[in-house]
Design brief:
- It contains 24 helices and 23 strands.
- It has a 7-stranded parallel sheet, with helices on both faces. A 7-stranded parallel sheet has the order 19-20-18-21-22-17-23, sandwiched between helices.
- Strand 1 and strand 2 form a beta hairpin.
- It is globular, with a radius of gyration of 25 Å.
- The chain starts with 8 loop residues before the first strand and ends in a 16-residue tail after the last helix.
- The relative contact order is 0.10.
- The C terminus is likely disordered.
Length: 574
């Protein structure tokens, strides 16, 4: 094969891939690479991707072959591929599904037709403890109670199982999608929402029923969940991040399906009702009086014969919910998320316990089709005031990030941006309450934080939607599951260290498509020459992988009258 030295990729034998950002073919190469490689670093000119076992297995589970992955690398590489790479990719991809879990008349069986491999796995301490009676040369009997933990053990030793054991059907629940919503508006499930729900369900086949759908914030993951419920036609438990999210799911289900009010219930800190469709928060499930107590609300998983469990924002799934999920592998499980990135590194547990990635659409593709708003991302670098530089210099390492994050010089930048966007719907979001209270007082803006009563939150959100309140300050409660479709400017004044998923979630607050085709603007305020700047680079990794780039602006320039944003304020929506 002839290789082109003008191509953008340099593929290396350690499974790292260097990508030239300034190359004319950068965008198409990035889009082809992203489904099976992870972005590790994204400085200005050269981005580094890596082929990991999990990235390759997720791609394989989504239907991408090893041959196709190798073809992409060959197509965009400057130089011949390292001789070890193609065999390595083929070997890693082939490990997915070499071991299968199937239903057996006495429970489950672990099947592997590669006898030497089965013998090797049977001698692995992590796996051996879950194996029952030897059924024949190629299979072991498995206690159904070990279905989840065995899958965790197998992925840990490098051989992820394909789970073909099927599911208990669950109690029937006739559910149809409306063509005209309760609100009187026409309702059509978008093509990618319909496709993702159908791929998850797989017509009821054992190859469907468990997996993760990855869609951008603002792309309608709630609608995907509702479409999956209509496919499954069974009692459904929806787990999500907050009471606000529960109420959003509640509104959407009643608005867009023929279910009655008494068929949908909420199980939260405020109310604990159970119905054929029950919406619960992760917070109530993991609540217990003492850290040594049992989790009293785990009984919810046994309260009804659930046919489907939906895990909203699956990248935020708490550890205790992983544990109970390992015990309910006979239920269909759908994970919804904008990013598979977990800051605790438990992506393998999502893969083994919820299921592999089944569907993924690049953010930029949906943007080009007008399903999410076009957005510009800007990082504004602000100097630390001179009196604080010495305080920062002598501060203990763990305190430096907070000092930089709460830089009071950011307040003037916020004021300049509020002035610029005085007629727009602006969200200001941050990590530290002292900083947010200062901004709230200085600019006389409402502040929503964890202690804000839900009635007050909903009132402010509704006023924001109606335009009665145009500028709103949010603590971390604003990171996810808030339906504010007209928000078109977000100012991030501080964040949770280097959290990539938080950066993605926050951009997602302003990605709902705008009726007038306006571009959304995401501003991240960062203190230069501090730890905050280092963390900012890591935060931006995921969005860089999705095709976003950050304009860098100096705080002093932003304060000048002549400062302007590029590109233009509006864009054509396809």
């Amino acid at each position: 094969m002839n290789y082109d030295p003008t191509n953008p990729l340099i593929v290396q034998g350690d499974r790292s891939i260097l990508v030239e950002v300034d190359n004319p073919r950068y965008s198409e190469a990035r889009d082809a690479l992203a489904p099976f490689a992870e972005l590790e670093k994204s400085p200005e000119h050269i981005h580094t991707y890596r082929l990991t076992p999990l990235s390759l297995w997720n791609a394989a589970a989504a239907g991408l072959s090893a041959a196709r992955m190798i073809e992409v690398l060959q197509k965009y590489s400057k130089f011949p591929l390292p001789t070890n790479l193609a065999p390595d990719i083929s070997e890693t991809v082939s490990r997915y599904g070499r071991v299968r879990l199937e239903r057996h008349e006495r429970g489950l069986r672990l099947l592997c037709t590669d006898r030497p491999l089965l013998e090797e796995l049977a001698r692995q301490a992590k796996v051996r403890q879950y194996l029952g009676e030897r059924l024949d040369e190629v299979s072991f009997l498995i206690d159904p109670a070990f279905r989840g933990v065995l899958k965790q053990a197998l992925i840990a030793v490098g051989y992820p199982a394909e789970d073909l054991a099927g599911y208990t059907e669950g109690a029937a629940l006739p559910i149809n999608l409306r063509q005209i919503t309760r609100a009187g508006l026409p309702f059509v499930v978008r093509d990618y929402q319909k496709d993702s729900a159908e791929i998850f369900h797989a017509g009821g086949d054992v190859r469907g029923g468990s997996g993760v759908i990855v869609l951008p914030c603002g792309a309608g993951k709630t609608i995907v969940g509702i479409a999956a419920m209509a496919q499954v036609q069974r009692n459904t438990l929806v787990l999500t991040t907050s009471i606000t999210a529960v109420k959003q799911w509640h509104r959407e289900i009643l608005d867009k399906t023929d279910l009655n009010d008494d068929q949908v219930a909420e199980y939260t800190g405020e109310t604990k009702e159970i119905a054929p469709v029950t919406l619960a928060t992760y917070q109530i499930l993991t609540h217990r009086a003492d850290k040594n107590d049992e989790f009293p609300h785990f009984k919810l998983f046994d309260q009804r014969d659930w046919g489907l469990i939906v895990y909203d924002e699956v990248h935020l799934l708490p550890a205790p919910v992983f544990r109970v999920t390992a015990q309910i592998q006979a239920r269909r499980r759908l994970g919804l998320t904008a990013t598979l990135v977990r800051e605790d590194g438990r992506e393998e547990d999502v893969f083994s316990l919820i299921g592999p990635k089944k569907y993924d659409v690049p953010w930029r593709e949906l943007e080009s089709r007008g399903w999410i708003a076009e957005a510009t991302c800007s990082e504004i670098r602000v100097a630390l005031p001179e009196p604080l530089r010495m305080e920062y210099a002598v501060a203990e390492w763990r305190n430096k990030y907070r000092l930089a994050s709460e830089n009071p010089a950011k307040d003037d930048i916020v004021g300049r941006l509020l002035e610029r966007y005085q007629d727009k719907r602006v969200l200001i979001i941050g990590q530290y309450l002292k900083q947010l209270r200062t901004l709230s007082k200085r600019f006389d803006l409402p502040l929503i934080m964890g202690s804000t009563a839900n009635t007050e939150r909903e009132d402010l959100y509704n006023k924001f939607r109606k335009g009665e309140v145009r500028h709103l300050i949010l603590s971390k409660v604003g990171n996810f599951a808030i339906d504010l479709p007209d928000a078109n400017v977000l100012i991030q004044v501080s964040g949770t260290f280097g959290s990539r998923q938080e950066e993605a979630q926050r951009l997602g607050r302003i990605l709902r498509p705008k009726t007038n085709g306006e571009i959304a603007h995401f501003y991240s305020l960062v203190t230069r020459d501090t730890r905050e700047l280092d963390f900012a680079h890591h935060r931006q990794l995921f969005l860089t992988e999705q095709g976003y780039s950050y304009n860098i602006a100096d705080g002093s320039e932003v304060l000048e009258e002549s400062w302007s944003v590029s590109p233009p304020e509006t864009a054509n929506v396809g």
